[in-house]
Amino acid sequence: MPHQQTSDGQDHSAEHSAVNRSGSRRTFIKASSVTVTAAALGTVAVQAIPSASARPLTAVDEALRAGRPVSLTPACDGHETPAAAEGPLFKPESPERTNLITPGIRGVELEFTGTVYDTACTPIPGTLIEFWQCDQNGDYDTTGYTLRGHQYTTSRGAFTLRTIIPRDYTGRWGTRTPHIHTKVQTPGGPVLITQLYFPDETQAYGRNFATLNAGDGLINRACTIALTGPVDGSYKGAFDFVVKTTAP
After folding, report:
1. How far out from the chain centre does Cα 96 lie?
2. What is the pLDDT of residue 59?
3. Which pLDDT value is given to residue 248?
4. CB burial string 166-181: b at 16+ within 10 A, e below
5. Spacing of C-alpha 91 from chain mean position
6. Which residues contact 47 (CB under 8 A, 6 or more apart)?
7. Alpha carbon distance 210, 199 (integer Å)
8. What's the average model confidence in pLDDT over 86-115?
9. Is 27 strand, coil or helix?
C-alpha cells in the first residue's frame, strides 16, 4: 500500500483503545492513557571527547572503544521520566521490530539504547515500548507504519532502536523541533507517554537544532537523548526510562 504522508504540528493528548490482556501486544495498552507527572532527569549535552592522552579514560570512552552501548550517567536516579502529550498521530497495531529504517528512508541514521527502570532503579523486563516519528522530510506516515514500531525490553530491561533522526516540521498545529514519540508500559502497569529530543549540537539536514529547540514551547530537555557522533554520518545514543509500575 502506498504511503500518504502528512505534516504533523503541535501535539495534543489523545486516548488510545482498550484491549484485553490475553496474548497479543495489545494486552499491554490499558483502556485509558495514564499521565505520569514527575521530576525531570538531568539533561545530557553532547561534548567533544578529548584525546586519551589529555585525561584518563572514562566509562563512556571505554564503552565506545569496546563497541558497547553508551549509558546515561547516572543510569538511574529514581526520578520518573517526564510525561508529554501523545499527539494526534499515534496508530495502534504497529509492527514489532527494533529497526525502523525501511526502503525509502534516507535520513541521518541513529541507533540508541537504554534500559527501563522502576523508581527503585530496578530494570524491568518485558516492558512494552512504542515508537513513532516523522521522516527526513518532516512527514508522518498516516496510512501505513513507516517509522512506527513496538518492542519489548529484554530480561535485563534493555532496548535498542535503529531509526533516523527526524526532521523538524511546520504544519497546521504549529512548528516542532525534531522529536520521537514514545509510550512505555511495564507489564500490568500504567502507560507513560512522552517525547524524546536531541541535543543542540546535533547535525542533520542542515538544520540548526539549537534554534529549533529554543523555539519549541513543548520541549522538555530532561528527555534529551545523549548522542555520540556523528561517525560516518550516523549517531549513537542512549536514553533510560524511569517509570511507575503501579497506578497512582
Report:
1. 16
2. 47
3. 75
4. bbbbebeeeebbbbbb
5. 16
6. none
7. 8
8. 96
9. helix
Phi and psi at residue 52, to the nearest 5°: -60, -30
d(CA 203, CA 241): 24
Which residue do the cell numbers 536514553 mark? Answer: 239
Tell me the one-letter amino acid at 205: Y
Q: Which amino acid is at 104?
A: G
Distance in angstroms (rounded) separating the CA atoms of residues 115 and 209:
26
Residue entry with cell 533510560:
240
C-alpha cell read off for 213: 529547540
What is the average per-residue pLDDT within 152-168?
98
**Would you give the end-to-end CA distance of the chain in angstroms?**
42
Q: What is the mean pLDDT of the chain?
A: 80
CB 175 within 8 A of CB 205: no
Give the Å distances, CA to CA, from 62 to 52, 58, 68, 136, 181: 10, 6, 8, 32, 30
The residue written with cell numbers 550516523 in the block is 234
